[in-house]
Specification:
The protein is of the alpha/beta class and about 250 residues long. Helices cover about 30% and strands about 15% of the residues. Strands 3-2-1-4-5 form a five-stranded parallel beta sheet, sandwiched between helices. Strands 9-6-10-11-12 form a five-stranded mixed beta sheet. Strands 7-8 form a two-stranded antiparallel ribbon.
Length: about 250
Amino acid sequence: MRVVSLVPSLTEAVAVTGPGLLVGVTDWCTHPAELTAARIGGTKNPDVAAVVALRPDLVVANEEENRESDLAALREAGQDVLVTEVRTLGQAFTELERVLGACGLKRPRWLDEAEAAWSAAPPPGTPRTAIVPVWRRPWMVLGRDTFAGDLLARLGVRNVYADHPERYPRIPLAELNGAGADLVVLPDEPYRFTADDGPEAFPSMPAALVDGRHLTWYGPSLAEAAGELRAALRRPARGASVHPPPPRP
């Protein structure tokens, strides 16, 4: 079996479960660290000719990560493309099993451990309301129907923009600060928020810096994500206490 993955999460899932199956991955596929598969471009701009040249039996993709035009081009070139949809934790488990099965792999132990970890997670404590930026310049946040939003909800964090018509709306900073949230959650991807880049924009509320892989990836990291996210959400820092960098829009 020769597999090309256009999704970092699925790359990790396939690589850990079936070492040697992947012949092509994107430039954003960083896990596992020992990946040696050919790089075929980004998730939004894969090199279709390079993928075809690898002669894969299967290309795995995602309806959010990858553009339909690229997937259509791959199909027109004769490639078998499996497209996943992951907007909830339950969907993640179902789609992971489907992808691994399509790769000829048996259900792995890490998938059992991930499901068990989330099933055994203690009930959330006092509910909190949060905004979850994923980009700045312009500011963009989690909106409706997102995998990350579902994970946070399971940990007792309600996304202020969960009912927004858009999945990743652009919201002016002044509106974000006046949205009535009591917490801002700042992941380190896709935008790399850090203690010195992000919290200073929200001086009136605590900022929880979280690992973007634990919040947005669906794969082996799910086995530890519940505990890691819960711990990160318990130790937010007050935005005003962080030494701010030069002002940004």
